[in-house]
Amino acid sequence: MVLETHPEAVDTFQRLDIFEQLKQACELKDQDYRVITLSIRLMGQVVYFGRSSTFMSLEGHHPELLRMITGGLRSSEPALRWSCLQACKLFVSCDEGQRWLCDNKEAASLITLALLDQSAYVVSEACRLFLTLLVLKSPLVDILDPAEQIKSILSSSSNPSQVMAALEFCWSMVSSEATLDYLHRTRLLSFVIPLMCSTNRMICSRVLEILSALFSWDPNPTKTLGLNGQETLSGAYEIMIQMAKEMMLVQSMHQVMTATGLLDTSLELLKRTPCEQDITQTLVPLLDICLGRQTHTEFDVVKLALKSNRDKNNVLQSVLRTFNKLALIQTTVLQDGELGERFLTVFKNQSDYMDHRVLKNGLGLLQTLFSSFKDKSRIIDLLADMMEQDELDAKGISLLLETFDVFLNDLDMETSGLNTWIETFSLKLLDTEWDIRDAAIHFVGRLFREPTEECKITFALKYNLPLKVLDRLNDSEPFIRASAVDVLQNMMKSKRGWDYLQQHEQSRYFLASQLPSLLYDTEAFVRRATLDAICCLVENRSCQGMKMEIENKPHSINPEIIKTLVDDQDPDVRVRACRLIEHLWYLYEHEKQQQKKREFKVEWKEVVFFHFIHADELLIQAANDTHRLVRMEAVRIISDLMKKEERREERKRGLEDEFVEEFVNKLSRVNIEQQKQTLEPEHLYEEAFDVNVDMMTNQKMDDVVLDCE
């Protein structure tokens, strides 16, 4: 809402007698409940930013609106109940609002009921309301306190939805340090720990989230959770690890997963204090079991719970994720060479790393440990071997390439194995699956992405990766063509990348001839990417040699193709075409200034070319486009040009020639203020329902129907 970004607007609302306006809107016969919902939300915002005097005005002159909020708490519409709770939460920011709620017994009882509402977002809002009261130390806490009811549900309810609602309340309480006294006084969380043995996965997951939040700030989790043991952070850490061990000894896959989750959660405590308890003594046996190694430990019972390959991978990915967090907290893990070898075993078994969850968490751990490996070429060879596997899909290839991207920060460019990796990577640029080719192209693009890293650009240029991407500009798949142009633009923005492109005949030829030809591509997203790249070149005055023709020659930038692009079916193409005209205008001005400095006057093609594209007419046409975003861009460009001319006049510098004078005069006839009125958001409604049938039609089908059908 506007008040959240402009709180000073509350004075304007009050002058407009906003409460009277809201009353009239809500009292209309058969009014849509959504209008009432928004009205109540606005009412709460006005009171929140207007404080006590505003609430007193509301209570004194429009008590029916407050009664409407009380009634809304009983509504059958969750959105309306939610908005009423939000309004109450905002009301209690002032003493008068707290007093009203304290005197309103009906509203107070309904708020307590809302804590167990069937709608999750209603429960969340009710919890936030109670948390607000706790932070404010309001006397309403004692009136609304649901602790006994929550504890009763946590300890005895068999209804999962009720338990989840009760856990939502607990989650809200642990999200703020201001609740610590309340948690100790009510012993609320002592009823949470037993729920880790629940057979409901969602309940166990929520309990772990609550513990994770609590462990991040509570100075004495043992006391807060009502556990017996040493009341220190290290004591709580040891209790959690022991609890996880005991859960694993139950022959249940569900309990094993909850136990591994608890080990992961307990690391929040390790972040805050050094502990003697070695969690690896629990994690390593689990890892060995998942990898099929022979073990003789108390955890061998876990093998009986892993009844399928998916069960094994579920545990494996959780263990790998926990090891990664541990390695980031305790760097001593990086020094254990034997442990590192165990991790590498994961990538030698296809059935393990073909699971994306295992691959992602395993590679994340490998990224953390990479700097500790003495022989880095082994790791590069391992990635190359994995990338060669035909069974690995585009998602898997992307994960491998993202990992290699991270490795480049610690790689010597002379590391053996890089040539083999490049050979394997080059084949992925030619893969039969278009999404794998796309993943490979995007990898090259990331190497040039800002903020640039010199080591990555050095790698890309050493192995001529830009030229390999240029080869894909003629790909049969339009997504690949568009991706290749995007990557090219990243290269052009990098100084070293641009120098490289200028040094090679293949890339110079592409920029001069082939890039403009992609403006004629049949796919809109290719035309968009091409316009972005050309705009980048023109903006940086780097378009020398590009085919700009006055006549309508194929595969060149000419007046006819610019006109076509401004008329394109795709609004994003039209927006970019307007930007191209803008950049061509500034290029025109630049070249005119350069001409003045030359001893011999030469009509540069950039100067002559702009005379023929009818830029003024095209911008005026775009300013009246049916699409709001196109109008917005055209109006911005015209407005900027006019402001620049006004500054020129203020400096008493006249227009330079007859062409410029005519160009400026035509644009000055556009009523900017009137055009800006067409940019208001309400015009979105019309555009949302304006379906372009030609663009939405699948032409390849015998019976031509809309794709959306």
TrEMBL record:
Alphabetical GO biological process terms: DNA damage response
First-listed, main subcellular location of the protein, grouped into a coarse class: cytoplasm
Keywords: Cytoplasm
Compartment(s): Cytoplasm
GO cellular-component term (any): cytoplasm
Family to which the UniProt record says this protein belongs: Belongs to the BRAT1 family.
Protein name, as recorded: Uncharacterized protein
